[in-house]
Amino acid sequence: MNQYSDDSFMLHTDLYQINMAETYWRDDIHERNAVFDIYFRKLPFGNGYGVFAGLERVISLVERFGFTESDINYLRETGYQEDYLTFLKNMAFTGTIRSVREGEIVFGNEPLMRIEAPLAQAQLLETLLLNVINYQTLIATKASRMVQVAGRGTAFEFGTRRAHETEAAIWGARAAYITGFAGTSNVRAGKLFGIPISGTHAHAMVQAYQDEYTAFSKYAETHKDCVFLVDTYDTLRSGVPNAIRVAKEFGDKINFKGIRLDSGDLAYLSKNARRMLDEEGFPDAKIIASNDLDEETIMSLNAQGAKIDSWGIGTKLITAFDQPALGAVFKLVSIENERGEMVDTIKISGNPEKVTTPGKKKVYRIINNANGKAEGDYIALEDENPQAEEKLKMFHPVHTYISKFVTNFTARELHEDIFAGGKLLYKLPELEDIRRYVEQSLSVFWDEYKRPVNPEQYPVDLSPACWEHKMKKIEEMLPPSAR
Ligand SMILES: Nc1ncnc2c1ncn2[C@@H]1O[C@H](COP(=O)(O)OP(=O)(O)OP(=O)(O)O)[C@@H](O)[C@H]1O
Ligand SMILES: O=P(O)(O)OC[C@H]1O[C@H](OP(=O)(O)OP(=O)(O)O)[C@H](O)[C@@H]1O
Ligand SMILES: O=C(O)c1cccnc1
């Protein structure tokens, strides 16, 4: 691998972005103000909601916007001409970014982030921003599903060895923590983000001593907090009895925190291990389970009455095993014309769900004041003020007959100002605040939207003005023969 002391993320993009930016620059439209929305269309895992993550990383990347010398040298080697390279070299981010907060509960077809910047700058950010937001939001959503079934503060993230490389491991651990995981086994994630770290021991240690009793004793001699992994040879006939023996022998010299089960029938083994620990005077010792766990297995184990207190979860979480990608997109919704006026744009598709929603918009969460619960999200044009309406009409943007009127509501705007004119305005919240925010945000949704299997579909509606504007644009852009 080539090493550069000034490597940056500016080339962490698809080649076509650099080529499109060149076209804009040579045609002198690169400075035109452009507005892009980032959103996904379909929630992953059949979940009823998503948890937005990635903002902290996006901010740190946008703050470092700017091609370095080695970036420019590399582009020169690939054949770009000097005049364009000079333009790139002098480019700084001067745009405006509005975004939902990290940890916000989000849904399909609503803008999560809005980038308004000179066209070439915005184009150069697309791939990088989607790379970050798609992964972190996917993992946060998966983790939140797991927390729904396992309970807050009962799951530990163990996935680094299976993660898609190093950065995915640590940002995935962070995404899991904000949704209610108790901590991570990744020590660097602890150092960088302040996430609580935690760990037991592996089969290797038992194998190294060749004898379970010796291995547990040696660990107890060197560590105060002890969780013994009991399944290396025979969980109930050897592992649990050896753990109990060492716990008794060491007494107050250690905190015998419990045992970990990592194979076999986790329901059967946990029930029997629980009985043995209780009978031997260790009712407070916890049982931790691991082994390819996901929300379905956890749900099943709970239904079987398994006596499991906490869960070590790796592969299925950190790789988003059953749906390894979120499909968030970056779509142009408005652009300045040659007269300096903003013109809203649309992308038409045969699939009505894929038709983009033109114009600068704001997203509101409509909260019913009578019960504090969310009625739906409401996407309005920039200059609308839904709070001023006595009676808000909410209707499905594709199946418009599905509609309701809402009165006595609070319209909470979901976007915050992150950058304006290239300057960072936003003060990043502490990780613990983000974690509390996820919990608090979820509490405004009825349980029907939060159940992991076949949840109700939460309404994400367009205001009548936004909907009419979209219909008008479709009409305008269709070829005359189709009108
Ligand atoms: N009682 C149970 N009900 C449902 N699923 C279970 C139960 N017990 C274990 N599982 C899950 O079933 C799967 C068993 O996988 P597998 O057969 O590979 O494990 P194993 O043979 O017990 O252990 P290993 O191969 O890791 O030594 C794991 O995903 C585990 O979490
Ligand atoms: O199962 P996961 O959810 O990914 O959790 C992490 C796993 O990593 C460790 O074992 P490892 O996978 O290295 O070995 P094993 O498969 O033989 O247990 C640990 O014992 C868990 O089983
Ligand atoms: O601490 C553990 O038990 C652990 C950590 C990572 C992977 N598997 C287990």
Automatic annotation (TrEMBL):
Pfam families according to UniProt: NAPRTase, NAPRTase_C, NAPRTase_N
EC code(s) of this entry: 6.3.4.21
Record-annotated Nicotinate phosphoribosyltransferase N-terminal domain positions: 11-134
A single Gene Ontology CC term: cytosol
One of the GO BP terms on file: NAD+ biosynthetic process via the salvage pathway
Span of domain Nicotinate/nicotinamide phosphoribosyltransferase: 157-339
Enzyme's top EC category: ligase
Reaction catalyzed: 5-phospho-alpha-D-ribose 1-diphosphate + nicotinate + ATP + H2O = nicotinate beta-D-ribonucleotide + ADP + phosphate + diphosphate
Superkingdom as given in the UniProt entry: Bacteria
Location of the Nicotinate phosphoribosyltransferase C-terminal domain: 360-469
Post-translational events: Transiently phosphorylated on a His residue during the reaction cycle. Phosphorylation strongly increases the affinity for substrates and increases the rate of nicotinate D-ribonucleotide production. Dephosphorylation regenerates the low-affinity form of the enzyme, leading to product release.
InterPro entries: Aldolase_TIM (IPR013785), N/Namide_PRibTrfase (IPR041525), NAPRTase_C (IPR041619), NAPRTase_N (IPR040727), Nic_PRibTrfase-Fam (IPR007229), Nic_PRibTrfase_pncB (IPR006405), Nicotinate_pribotase-like_C (IPR036068)
Pathway connected to this protein: Cofactor biosynthesis; NAD(+) biosynthesis; nicotinate D-ribonucleotide from nicotinate: step 1/1
Purpose: Catalyzes the first step in the biosynthesis of NAD from nicotinic acid, the ATP-dependent synthesis of beta-nicotinate D-ribonucleotide from nicotinate and 5-phospho-D-ribose 1-phosphate.
Family named by the database record: Belongs to the NAPRTase family.
Record protein name field: Nicotinate phosphoribosyltransferase
